[in-house]
Design goal:
This protein has 199 residues and is α/β, with parallel strands linked by helices. The chain contains seven helices and seven strands; from the N terminus they run E-H-E-H-E-E-H-H-E-H-E-H-E-H. Helices cover 36% and strands 20% of the residues. Strand 1, helix 1 and strand 2 form a beta-alpha-beta unit.
Length: 199
């Protein structure tokens, strides 16, 4: 069974909702399953640590999750046009995987949520791609054959899935945003399956 790791950080639940839609898209492809993992928040108190298992939601990611996956979907809320610090912090711990080339050639995709329509969705997606390029991953976006990219009134970009959560972070995924999340997961899974079966 081919496994796609869906690794995300979510403060208000919007990115988590996107991750679940991406997972639905992944599992539309026969022979592929999704593994959902999150990362803990960063403490502002030195030496403070999180419990090894979160009180609710999906388990925290480990380097083994990354090493074992066949493909990766990476999700984060936007922070000043960049990925959130907890996800960046986790990615900064992946030096051993970079040294060993463990992620080279694996397909990857990105997704994000912002409070405002022009709040940095595309720059955040691009910022998340940078470490993946350094790991030698093969980046996958959403092609314009997905009509939702043309018709969306909220999130959705060719760089990856996105969501407009509103200033109070209380807007649910629109129908189109959910479709684009699933399309991204499905495309990532198809490419991962094809690459895995040609090696």
């Amino acid at each position: 069974m081919i496994e796609i790791l869906i690794l995300y950080y979510s403060r208000h639940g919007n990115v988590a909702a996107m991750a679940e839609q991406v997972a639905r898209g992944v599992e539309e492809i026969e022979g592929v399953q999704a593994r959902l993992r999150t990362v803990p928040p960063i403490s502002t108190v030195c030496e403070a640590t999180e419990d090894a298992i979160p009180q609710s939601g999906y388990p925290y990611a480990s380097l083994e999750d990354l090493k074992e996956c066949t493909g990766l979907a990476l999700g984060s809320p936007t922070r000043f046009g960049n990925m959130a610090a907890p996800l960046k912090y986790f990615l900064d711990t992946t030096i051993s995987l970079w040294l060993s080339g463990s992620l080279v050639g694996k397909p990857a995709a990105v997704f994000t949520s912002t409070a405002s329509l022009h709040g940095g969705q595309e720059s955040t997606l691009l910022s998340m791609m940078t470490p993946l390029f350094h790991h030698g991953m093969v980046l996958v976006g959403i092609p314009y054959t997905e009509s939702g990219l043309i018709t969306t009134q909220a999130g959705g970009t060719p760089y990856g899935a996105s969501h407009l959560s509103g200033v109070n972070n209380d807007l649910p995924l629109t129908h189109t945003e959910a479709i684009l999340c699933r399309a991204l997961g499905k495309r990532l899974a198809k490419i991962a399956y094809s690459l895995a079966n040609t090696q």
